[in-house]
Amino acid sequence: MSGIARVILRELHRLPRFPVLWALLGPIPLAAAVLLTGVFQAEVARRLPIGILDFDGTRAARLAARWVGAARSVNVVARIQDLGQAQDLLVRRKVYAVLVLPRHFERDLLHQRSPRVTLLYDEQYITAGNLISADVARAVNTGAGAVAFELQRSRGLTAAAAEAAAEPIRVDARLLFNPAVNYASGVGVVLIVGLIQVVVGISTIYVVGRELRDATAGEWLEAAGGSPAAAWIGKLTPYVLYDLVLMLVLVGGFLAWFHIPVRGYLAFVVLGALAFSLATKAIGVLFTVWLGNLRMALGIGSVFFGPAVAFSGVTFPRIAMSTFAQVWSGFVPLTRFMLLLRDQVTVGAPLRISAAPLLALGATALIAGVLALPRMGRVLRDPRLWGRE
Amino acid sequence: MRALARCFRQTLRQIVRDKETLVLLFGASFFYALFYPTPYMKQVLRDLPIIVVDRDHTALSRQITRWLDASEGAQVASRASDLDAAQDSVRAGLVGAVLLIPKDFERHVLRGEPAYVEAYADASYFLVYSTALRAINGVVGTVSAGVSIHRLQAAGLTDQAAARRTRPVTFVPWPLFNPLAGYGTFVVPAVFILILQQTLMIGVAVLRVAERERGSSREPPWAILGGKLGATALIYVGHGFFMFGVVFNLYGFPMRASWLDVVVFLVPYFAAVTLLGLVVAELFERPESSTVALVATSLPALFMSGISFPLEVQPGWVRALSVVLPSTFGIRGFLQLAIMGARFDQAMRAWGALWVQVVVYWILAWMVLRRRERSARSDGTERGAELVPGG
After folding, report:
1. Which of A112, A224, B124, B139 has the fewest beta carbons under 10 Å from its own?
2. What is the spatial order of strands in the sheet that A116-122 belongs to?
3. Which residues in chain A show pLDDT less than 70?
């Protein structure tokens, strides 16, 4: 039996002794992914609670309120009497917005004095706030447009001319790649992949770090027949394969659950997943062999892998980041892999575009590997590096 | 009372002595607070590159292009004639959107016929498409209103009447609490509250596992719990001052609550997290296991709080599970007080929920301590309850 095979066997025998590793590889990411799937279950936010503050109380005002209430993203849950109550409901988070119809709304509308309809909305909760303000603006403008249309028509204009007079230039907006603005696709995927990066990185640190802390690195090298190369390949291979399975189950499951199609080349995505696993593992190994201390490596690993989603450029684009964050995010495998997933899953871009992130992942793995190399042999042989707490 | 003071001092000593708890309970929050906000320092996306495909080549189409370039959100990366090539650039992620101004655009406008421009925006990134569309809608809306007013003036109306007539209703969107829609203001305060939870919970679990290894304490369980709560509250109120005072100032995030309100609100939060950490520690046999098991819980915890995808549209079972986490109520209430400027009584629900957690987790933690104590007594050794070797 070759050294590599013996190390793999030894690894499989070791596994049951580490319940927390089991938990990290299986139940924890699975539970977290199920929870995140649950969070985004609705895919698009609809019927968010809003209030209406009607200072006018006329038929026209009620009609306008009904018009707004019919917008998809809102649900009128409160009729409010005064601004104090509006403020109270907003800060208590009972409503995300309050539509204010001014006094003399109907009179001003009929006299063509363009009454001001104000939407007070909660922009701290940006997702809800933006959605509601865009939707209510559309509802108000459509309603107002209908009024204007009637006004112009009553002047004897043709329907087309009246329409053009009400809004001479329009924007025909087309949302590419995610036309429904589906949150599962827009935000959910990066969370699942970010979660996987945490699992891959931390588990690597743990399996290597445990050998050092338990001073079993000698046995490990012995199982490899004294060859450090065989020791490392045998150690990491089962986990790389497992990473691929984990990604297939979690990312594949997430995409399938939300019916998100893969628009590009699946084989390329798998290749990317392999490079992502290798790059993340290389960074985990780099931390562990140089720190030579399980707890310290876990700490540094948490700092590096934990906040990676914020730096990935998916929720907040890299071009808007500070220079420091841009540079930092370049080292994070998640950043590159998300580019590749965007291109090959969401967009269906040609392969040459995704070559860059794939090469970057390969380079990350290579550079981290080369930096770790001088210590990768030593930690196996030098007992002074073992047993550190 | 003496026992409580002893346990309090004992916990502090233990934290300072163990390098790992020291790093987790002191260093981690400090470091994350400075590090985490760095992507969001500019708060908003500015000068997003957009390609304009101008097939009209008139004064009006050039005006739209110029104004778009001058807008805050966008800049015109290039003017092209080939729509397919321009869309390829969006596909490649090089530009955020394409604005197509069709042939005969100005002619339609001058003739009073309906005129359209087409916007193709990259919706694979939410902030990109929303920024692009806001910029394009803003510029086109302004140009369009100018055209309307011009027409009505030509029909003999005064400026003011014309302006009113173009919009029978004036819609005024009035964003509250985070009026510039700053991404940092949106995400950082919530994440800071989460960071406090994660570092404290992991730190307390490490502390507890290490303490268990050393052997049983003769102090009564209530004093052990009380001493821990006092010690962690002291340290974490300090972190609160650093995060929400120093770091908020440094990065320019708003702070609308008084310090008294913040401290009063956060005390049960820290208590609930500490007690939860003591309970969770029962699952681990080695100190470092808590880091391994809990580091992956941050992402679901943050999104279950509803700051990003609204709580109201999350399914019932997710919301039911979210009440277990102190962060769910900690984030909600803290945002109310610190960002939305709520009076304390308006954040009472979140505060009350935290107290409920304190009571529940106190009972659980107390039971756990009692059980350990008994099994230690019956075995004559503290390590009697070790079920799983290695851990």
Report:
1. A112
2. A74-80, A48-54, A97-101, A116-122, B170-176
3. 1, 148-149, 151-166, 389
Q: What digits encode the pLDDT tens for the residues B30-60? A: 999 999 999 999 999 999 999 999 999 999 9
Nearest to A113 among B127, B164, B187 (CB): B164
Query: How many other C-beta atoms are found inside a 10 Å radius of the C-beta of residue B179?
Result: 12
| A234 and A368 housed in the same domain | yes
CA–CA distance, B110 with B112 (Å, rounded to integer)? 5
- pLDDT tens, position by position, B228-265: 999 999 999 999 999 999 999 999 999 999 999 999 99
Regarding whether A264 and A227 lie in a shared domain, the answer is yes
Average pLDDT over every residue of B342-354: 96
Whether A203 and A323 share a structural domain: yes
A334 plus A368 within the same structural domain: yes
| Cβ pair B39, A311 in contact under 8 A | yes
From B146's Cα to the closest Cα of chain A, the distance in A is 9
Give domain status of residue A177, yes or no: no
pTM exceeding the 0.80 threshold for the entire prediction: yes
- Residues 6 or more apart in contact with residue A180 via CB below 8 angstroms: A43, A44
Which CATH number belongs to the domain containing residue A72 in this structure? 3.40.1710.10
Q: Which amino acid is at B89?
A: S
From B52's Cα to the closest Cα of chain A, the distance in A is 14
Q: How many C-beta atoms lie closer than 10 Å to residue A381's C-beta?
A: 13
Q: Pick the closest to residue A302 from B297, B354, B188, B302 (CA basis).
A: B297
| Helices vs. strands in chain A: H and E counts, helices first | 19, 5
User: What gap in Å lies between CA A73 and CA A48, rounded to an integer?
Assistant: 6
φ/ψ (deg, to 5) at A273: -60, -40
Residue numbers in B near A195 (CB within 8 A): 296, 299
Residue B390: predicted pLDDT: 42
Nearest one of B288, B269, B263, B230 to B24, comparing CA atoms: B288
Judgement on whether residues A162 and A198 belong to the same structural domain of the protein: no
Residues contacting A131, CB < 8 A, separation 6+? A45, A48, A73
Tell me how far apart the alpha carbons of residues A385 and A381 are, in angstroms, rounded to a whole number: 9
**What distance in Å separates the CA atoms of residue A165 and residue A156, rounded to the nearest whole number?**
12
- Output the six-digit token pair for B286: 């080695």
**Do A150 and A186 fall within a single domain?**
no
Neighbouring CB atoms inside 10 A of A79's CB total 11
H or E element that contains B322: helix B316-322
Residue A202: per-residue pLDDT:
97
How far is A34 from chain B, CA to nearest CA, in Å? 9
> How many Cα atoms occupy the beta-carbon half-sphere of A100 within 13 Å?
16
d(CA B151, CA B157): 9
**Structural domain count of chain A:** 2
The pLDDT, as a whole number, for residue B155 is 75
Question: Quick check: B388 pLDDT over 60?
Answer: no
Is residue A209 domain-resident? Answer: yes
| A122 vs B176, B299, B304: nearest CB | B176
Q: Provide the pairing of β-strand A97-101 with A116-122.
A: antiparallel
Neighbouring residues of B177: CB distance < 8 A, sequence distance ≥ 6: A122, A123, A124, B339, B340, B341
Same domain, A205 and A145: no
Q: Which residues of B touch A317 (CB under 8 A)?
A: 45, 48, 125, 127-128
Average pLDDT, chain B: 90
Residue ranges of domains in chain B, CATH in brackets: 2-40+184-385 (no CATH), 48-166 (3.40.1710.10)
- Domain extent at residue A117: 48-166
Residue A171: inside a domain, yes or no?
no
Residue of A nearest to B316 (CA): A38
Nearest to B288 by CA among A18, A219, A283, A309: A18
